[in-house]
UniProtKB/TrEMBL annotation:
Protein name from the UniProt record: WRKY domain-containing protein
The WRKY domain, residue ranges: 139-205
Comp. bias (Polar residues): 64-79
Localization per Swiss-Prot or TrEMBL: Nucleus
Keyword Transcription: yes
Comp. bias intervals (Basic and acidic residues): 114-123
Keywords, in A-Z order: DNA-binding, Nucleus, Transcription, Transcription regulation
Record region (Disordered): 64-123, 234-260
Record bears the keyword Hydrolase: no
DNA sequence: CGAATTTGACCGGCGC
DNA sequence: GCGCCGGTCAAATTCG
């Protein structure tokens, strides 16, 4: 943030031809006052961003630790039915989609008997994440823009939710095993719940595209949240599936969301654009005087 | 005309 | 064994 350059605008504005000298003096004073106010506000925002970025770095490390510990059961509320096809998909794939995620609970939670009967059950839990995205309630497309290419291969109306559930496969790479299910939340029709299964065995098709759509998501234990950046500003969707999150958890979640946003280049760009836009707007307003 | 989507049929796991 | 139900397939349809 370079305040000196901003201050120079007063000089430029002063150079503009004005009809009445008295008015120009008044205008100049008002401008200076406004600029100093905006500069102070800008400085405050900069400081806030700095603090938030620091918090992000710190909390990100904590989040990494947390997710590495709980990666096998992240926000997974397994239904009673799991299909063999899923198991084969997860287990038969040679692309190491489960390689690192299967360690942990599979050893501690399953006995030898279980492993003989249901040897692959734990694999199902691996790499299932849920993302909640707020959309227009009237939008029935069930499209969640996450930067990847998806091909729809089915749609079903499930029993527990009158909204249809759409099934997608990743079509960017033919061998990519990732699937996702998209369904509107039964509680809030404006929220679309996307459930991802598996892990992409290819790089993100276009990180720029992903940034442009700016859907960010993270899952913290039983609480998942997503952020969406748009021209109208960032929106945050929370999935408070946990009945009664403690104040500490709520606070932690809030901080992590804030830090996640500040780390996001798109968010920073949006902030910068908003700030610069404000300057332009204010300059335009003062020019009209 | 090829790719993507839709949609009814089918499959298979699970509970009774 | 049967029926329910979620998930998948694939032919038909739509779209660019």
């Amino acid at each position: 943030m370079e305040f000196s350059s901003l201050m120079n605008t007063s000089f430029d504005l002063n150079a503009k031809p004005l009809r009445i000298i008295d008015e120009s003096l008044l205008l100049r004073g008002a401008l200076m006052e406004e600029l100093s106010r905006v500069s102070a506000e800008n400085k405050k925002l900069t400081e806030m961003l700095t603090v938030m970025c620091e918090n992000y770095t710190q909390l990100r490390n904590q989040l990494m630790e947390h997710t590495s510990k709980n990666s096998t059961g992240v926000d997974n509320t397994p239904t009673s039915r799991k299909r063999k096809a899923e198991i084969n998909m997860n287990n038969g794939n040679n692309n190491n989609i489960n390689g690192t995620e299967n360690v942990g609970p599979s050893e501690s939670s399953s006995s030898d008997e279980d492993s003989s009967k249901k040897p692959k059950e734990e694999l199902i839990k691996a790499k299932i994440s849920r993302v909640h995205v707020r959309t227009e309630a009237s939008d029935t497309s069930l499209i969640v823009k996450d930067g990847y290419q998806w091909r729809k291969y089915g749609q079903k109306v499930t029993r527990d939710n009158p909204s249809p559930r759409a099934y997608f496969k990743c079509s960017f790479a033919p061998t990519c095993p990732v699937k996702k299910k998209v369904q509107r939340s039964i509680e809030d029709q404006s929220i679309v719940v996307a459930t991802y299964e598996g892990e992409h065995n290819h790089s993100h098709p276009s990180k720029l595209d992903a940034n442009s759509t700016s859907n960010r998501s993270m899952t913290l234990g039983n609480v998942s949240c997503s952020t969406t950046l748009s021209s109208s500003g960032p929106t945050i969707t929370l999935d408070l599936t946990k009945p009664n999150p403690s104040p500490q958890e709520t606070r932690s979640l809030r901080e992590q969301m804030a830090s996640q946003l500040t780390k996001d280049p798109s968010f920073k760009a949006a902030i910068a654009a908003a700030i610069s836009g404000k300057f332009v707007q204010q300059n335009n307003q003062t020019e009209k005087w």
